[in-house]
Amino acid sequence: MSNVKAEDTRREGFDQIGKPIPRKEDARLLRGKGTYVDDIEIPGALHACFVRSPYAHARIAGFDLDEARGMPGVVVVITGHEINEWTNGLRMAPPIEGLLPTEMTTLPVDKVRFHGDPVVCVVATDRYLAEDAAELVYVDYEVLDAVASYEAALAEGAPLVDETLTTNLVSHQTFEAGDIARRKAEAHRIVEAKFAMQRMTHLPIETRGCIALWDDGREHLTMHIGSQAPHPMRSALAGRLKLAEHQVTVASPDVGGGFGQKIIVYREEITVAALARHLKRPVRWREDRLENLSASLQARENTVRTCAAVDKEGRILSLEAEIMEDFGAYCFYPANYLARVIGMILTGPYRIQDYAFEVKIALTNKCGAGPMRAPMAITSLVMDGTLDAVARELDLDPAEVRRVNMLRPADLPYLMPTGERLEDVTPSECFERGLEEIDYAGFRVKQAADRESGIYRGIGICNVVESTTYGSAFYKAAGIPGSGHEAAWVKVEPSGSIRASAGLMGTGQSYETPYAQAVAEGLGVDAAQVDILLGNTDIAPYGMGARGGRGATAGGGTLFLTALDLKAKMLDIAAALLDLNSASELEMKGGKVLRHVGGEWSETGLGLGDIARTAYLDPLKLPEGMQPGLEMHRAWDPPQMTYSNATHICQVTLDPATGRIDIDRYLVVEDCGTVLNPLVVDGQQQGATVMGIGGVLFEHMVYDESGQNLCGTLADYMIPTACEAPVIEIIGQHTPNRRTPAGIKGMAEGGIMGAIGAVNNAVNDALRPFGVVADRQPLSPDYIRSLLRGAAR
Amino acid sequence: MSKLPIRLTVNGDSHEVSVEPRKLLSDVLREDLRLTGTHVGCEHGVCGACTVLVDGAPTRACLIFAIQMEGREITTVEGLTPAEGLSPLQQALHEEHGLQCGFCTPGIVTTFEAYLRENPDPTEADIREVLAGNLCRCTGYQNIVRAIGKAAKAMREGATT
Amino acid sequence: MKPAKFEYHKPETLEEALALLAEYGDEARIIAGGQSLVPMMNMRLAQPAHLVDINNIEGLSYIRANNGSLEIGALTRHRQVEESSLLVQACPPMPAAARNIGHYGLRARGSIGGSLALADPSAEFPLMAMLLNAEISTRSAVGARSILARDFFVSVFTTTLEPGEIVTQVSLRALGQSEGWGFRWLARRSGDYAIVNAAATLALNGAGQIDRISLALGGVGATPLRLSQLEQESRGKAVGGDWAREIAAQAAAQIDPESDKNASAEFRKELIEVLLAAALEDALRRMEGRMAA
C-alpha cells in the first residue's frame, strides 16, 4: 500500500478541519489540575540550586565548599571538576564556512563568561536548605575586563570571550546575487537606513525546571522536563551523559510557555541528570525568576544596516544588508543560525533580484542567545522600514512605494534572489484589503488636520512573509545542520477508540484540539473521539519538535497524512467485509462507512467499531496479505519552506511632551492557508502580535558596560500588561498551499514580525513633522524624547 | 530553627501542617497540601500566577508566610471549581479561548472571582486595569478580557434568575 | 528565591510588638502587608533574624476625621484608602494615589504605614505625605514621636525611624472647600512605579490669584520633594495664560535629578515641567468644579 501524498490532499471543504472547537486541555488547566513539572510529586526527591557568577568575566581561582557541605540537609556541593568528568561538553562545529568552532564544558572551571554563569551546584533535601548552603559557597574570582556590546567585542585589543578563538567575531558570511554595483550606478538615489532590536528574553510564565530519576537497576534515566522538542532533547541528553539513547526517556508534562527557550538541553539540566545518576536518588530543580532573567537563553539584539538603490518612483533596484548580532557568551546554537535566515528571507514580498547581505556575529560577556519566537523578526521591520526610508527621502507616499515594489499575483511563483520560492501567498491582496479596511486615505486627511491642532498621529504598515515550516532542504540550502521532518502515529484500538501522537510538544500552542481535528479529518470521525498524546519519548515518534510556525504544517500535516493512510487500510477492510473488489466507492464519515452508488452516498451499516474489531479480533476476515491491527506510522518532510503572509497596520498617537505612544488601532490581514482550528489561530495571532508590541515598546534586557545584568526582576524586564495590549483586529484569508497536507501553511510567529515593523513605522510616521527617525528599540518615552529634544519643530 | 505546627483553613477544610516560619504560603499549598493549582511564576509579587484569596481578598501567596495565615480562610483555584464542570468564569475562559499554556490562568480565576463579586458589571477598561496585575505571555489578553466580560454577564443573569 | 530563616513573632498588642522590637533591635523587621519586604526576603536582600508580624494588632486600621485633619492608621490597606468615602470627600488626592499603587491584587494587602516606612522616592503615599503636610506618628518602647513628612524621609529607602520604632498613624490635612488638586505621573506600564510623579493643591483668592499652593514631586531625587520656596514665590500670581507652565518650568530649573536605566536626568527634568503643569491645571479645573458645585 502506498502512502498518501501531501500534494494530493487539497480539497474544497473539510469536515473536522476548520471548526472553532474549544480546547480539550482547558478542562484540566482551568480547574488547577494541569500537571507542570513542579506539580509532579516524587517522594524523596532532592532539590538542586546553582551558585552563579556575579561577574561578567572572571578567572576562577578556586572554590571553598567546606562550610556549605557542612550545612544540615546538604547532600552534595559540586563543581565542574566532577560534573565535567561525568558528562561530555557541547562542541558546536558544523561545517559552515565562516563559522568558528566552539566548545563548552557542562560547568565552567577555568573562567566564567557572563553574569549568571552557573559554577557550583548544591543539592539538599529541600530548596530552602539548598539556598542556605548556596550562600556559604565561596568562589575565588579574579575579575577580567568584559565586552558587553557588539562594538566592544570587535574593538581592537578586546578581551576574548572564548580564549580558544583569536577573535570575538565567531561567524562571518556573505552572499551576493545580481549586479549591485551596476544597479547603484543606474540609481536615482541611494537610501541608507539602520534598524536595531534590543536584547530580549522569552519570559515564559513558567520558568525552566526538571526532575531527573535514575533507575539504577535498569540503568535508565527518566527526565521530566518541559520541552518543545522531546526527542532531540533526549538525543542531546544521552550524548552529554555518555548514555545510549535507549537509556533516556524525556517526559514533558504540561508546559507553561516556551517561545524557543525550552528547545535545547541546558547545562543546569545536564548537571541535575548527572547528579541523579551519581547519587542514585531523584533530583529536581526549579529555575527561579532571577535565574530565568539572567541565565536562560536570551535573544534578538541584532542590528541591520541597509543600502537601497532606487529609481524615481521608489522602486528598489538593488539592496544590500549588513546584519550584525550580539550572540552572548556561549554558542548553544550555531552562531549564524538566526542571522543567516534573516539574510535569506529579507526581501520578503518585494520584487528584488540584485541583493547582497553580510552576516557578522560577535561573542560578548552576556547570556547566550538563541531563537525566540520569530527569530527572524527583524526582517519585516528592515524591509518595510527601508521602504519607508525611501518614501521619506523621495517624499513619496509609503503605501505607494510598497505598491510599486510588491509582488503581484502574476509574479508568482517567485524565486527570491537567495533561491527561496514564494508561491500560494497573497501579499498584494492582504495589503490592499488592509488599506481599505483601515481607510488609509481617510486617515491621511485626518492626520494632516490633527497635526494642525497639535495631535500627532502616525500610521505604520508592515507586510510580512513568514517562514513557518523549515523543510530539510532549507537547512541544507542555508548551511545549517538539521532535519525538518516530522513523524506521527495513529492507532484505532479494538474498541474503536483512537489515539495519535507526533514528535512535537506544545508549550501552550493548543496542539491537542487541532491535532485531534487533523486526525479526525483523515480518518473520517469526530474530533472528540481522538486522544492526542504528546511529549513522552517512549510514546511519541521521533520528530523534530515544536519550533518556528511548524505546529500545524509539520505536526498537523503529518498526523493528517498518517490518518489518511490508516483510513485507506480501514476502507480496504470495509470493502472485504462488504464483498467489494475495491474500496474506491467507499468513504468514512462520522465513523460510518458510506458507499457511493447511483450518485449518492448511502450507509453500509458498517462502522469504525466493526472494522476495528475485525482488524484485531477477527483477522481471518481481512483482505489477503493484510496485517492485523490498525496502527499507522509515518514521517513527512515538508517542502523547503512554507510561507504565510500578512499585512499589519497600526495607528498610533504620539505625545511629543512626554514621548508616550498610544496604539489607537491595530489591524492584521493574514493568509495562513487552511486553518485547523480558527479559535486557536486567532489566539496565536493575538498573542504573537502583543509579544511583538512588547518588544517594540517595552522589553529590554539591559546590561551595563561592565556586563552586569540590570534586569533582575519582572519590574525591570517589562512585558505588556492587559492595559498596554491593544485589541487586535484580524481578517483571515485562506489560500491553501499546494504542497502541504490539506493546504496548511502555519503561523504564530508572523504576528511578532508584523508588530515590530508596523508599530515602529507608525511611530516614525508620527515623528515625521519633527524630522527625526527612531532607529532602535524599544521606543521608550525617554528615547522618543531624546529624539525630539532639539528637533526641527 | 525548627518546624512549627500550624493550622490552615483552605477551601473550607482545616489542615494541620508542620512548617518552618519562613515557608511561603505558595510552597505550603503546593508541597504540604498538594494543591498544585496555585502556580509560582516569579516569587516577587509581579506575575500574579500564585494569587489566592485570603478572607475573600486576592493575595499573592508568594508574598506571605503560611504561618501568618492561621485563623484566615484561604481559597485556591481548586476551591473555586465546582465538583462537576466549570464555574461561569472558567466556562467563559474555555469558550473564548482565554488561556493557552494555562500557567497564569489560576491566578486570573482567583483574582476575578473576587473582583466580580465586588464589581459585577465592569467596563472593559475596568477589567483590563485589574487584569494588569496578572501577566500572561501567550494570549495578548484580548480573549481573557472578552471571557471575563462574558462571565460577568452570565453571573449577573444567573443571580437574577 | 527562598527567604533565609527567621524567628516569627505575632504580637497581639502594640505594647507587645514594641517590647519585641526593643529586645531585638536591628535584628528585627516589622511585617505589615509584606508586599515590598517579602520580595526582598525572597531574594535574600533582607534577612531579618526576627520578623514581627503586626497584622493581628487591633486598632491600627482606621480612617477618621479629627479636628480638620484626617488620621489614617498605619495598618490601613491601600484598598481601604482607595474606597474611603471620607477621604474621597475631604482629601480626594489620597484615594486617587491609592488607586494608582500597583494592581488590584496587591492593594488588598499593602499598608500605608509600610509604604511610608519603605520610603520609595517614586511611590504614591510618600509623595502625598509631602503634599499634604503629613505628620507621621510613631511609637517605641521609650515613647511616642510625631514626625513631619519633610523630616521623615531621609534618602532612598531611608527614614528617620529608629530601630524599635513603629509607624502607628499618618495624619494629613483636609483640603479646603474651595481647594483643587492634581496628581499626574508617567509610568512605563500600568501599575509600574512612576518615572516621575507630580502633585499639587491650589486655592485662589477673590482676585483670581494664587492664595494657597502646594507642590510635590516624586522620582526626581532621593526622597519625594516639596517645593516650599517656589510655593512662596507663586503666591499672589494670577492664574492666566501660561501660569501653570511657568511655575512648572521654575520647578524643573531648580531640580537636578539623576539618570538610571529607565530615564535620563534630562528626561526627568522635562517630565517635571509637563507633569507638574498638568497637575496644576487639573487643580484649577477641580477647584472651579468645587466652587461651581
Oligomer: heterotrimer
Structural class of chain B, by secondary structure, is alpha+beta
Tally of helical runs of chain B: 5
Q: Helix and strand string of chain B, N-terminal first? A: EEHEEEHHHH
The secondary-structure class of chain A comes to alpha+beta
Task: Explain what the structure shows.
- Chain A has 21 helices and 32 strands.
- Chain A is an alpha+beta fold and about 800 residues long.
- In chain A, helix 11 (about 380-395) packs across helix 12, helix 16 runs parallel beside helix 17 (about 550-575) and helix 17 crosses helix 18.
- Chain B is α+β, with helices and mostly antiparallel strands.
- A five-stranded mixed β-sheet of chain B has the order 2-1-5-3-4, sandwiched between helices.
- In chain B, helix 2 packs across helix 5 (about 140-160) and helix 4 (about 125-130) packs across helix 5 (about 140-160).
- The relative contact order of chain B is 0.15.
- The model of chain B has no long low-confidence stretch (mean pLDDT about 95).
- With about 290 residues, chain C is an alpha+beta fold.
- In chain C, helix 11 runs antiparallel to helix 12 (about 265-290).
- The chains are: A alpha+beta (about 800), B alpha+beta (about 160), C alpha+beta (about 290).
- The interface between A and C is medium-sized, with 31 and 26 residues.
